[in-house]
Amino acid sequence: MKKEISFTLNNEKVMVEVDPKWTLLHVIREVLEMTGTKEGCGYGECGACTVIVDGKAVDSCLYPVMEAEGKVITTIEGLAAKTGGLDPVQAAFVKEGAIQCGFCIPGMIMSAKALLDEKPAPSDDEIKESIEGNLCRCTGYVKILDAVKSIAGGR
Ligand code: FES
Ligand code: FES
Questions:
Q1: What is this structure's pTM?
Q2: 3-state secondary structure the chain
Q3: Which residues contact 86 (CB under 8 A, 6 or more apart)?
Q4: Which of 22, 26, 27, 49 to mutate to test the pocket of ligand 1 (most atoms within 8 A of CB)?
Q5: Which ligand number lies closest to the CA of residue 44?
Q6: pLDDT tens for the 155 residues of the chain, in order
């Protein structure tokens, strides 16, 4: 039986009917039709589905939707909306040439964004740790790390 839950998504309150068995990823992509958040592995291994929940980066494919009740959730679509242009993290990825096929990039950016929001001047090791759960099959990671480092602490 479906239940109604509400949460804040990209600065807007949403109410949605869900099957309690669904994941947050399913609701974001299939019910709310926000497809910037990607489904890669579907079981917590690739980070493509990363969103920010109450300030923390989480794998939305493992996140039971019922736990989203009352939470503040940001997806990749919410970053650009705040500024009217690209978020600084997105702009850094473009500037550093960190994007190839792009499939992993929303998740990478959300992981980096959660870190930088909590700690604006992270160390190189902290940057690596923040994206260690995000797999990229294209870039070799160097440019991705360069992009995050380029805006860490105003470097
Ligand atoms: S789709 Fe969620 S971790 Fe891979
Ligand atoms: S840019 Fe293709 S998977 Fe990362």
A1: 0.96
A2: CCEEEEEEECCEEEEEEECCCCEHHHHHHHHCCCCCCCCCCCCCCCCCCEEEECCEEEECCCCEHHHHCCCEEECHHHHHHHHCCCCHHHHHHHHCCCCCCCCCHHHHHHHHHHHHHHCCCCCHHHHHHHCCCCCCCCCCCHHHHHHHHHHHHHC
A3: 79, 80, 94
A4: 49
A5: 1
A6: 899 999 999 999 999 999 999 999 999 999 999 999 999 999 999 999 999 999 999 999 999 999 999 999 999 999 986 667 899 999 999 999 999 999 999 999 999 999 999 999 999 999 999 999 999 999 889 999 999 999 998 65
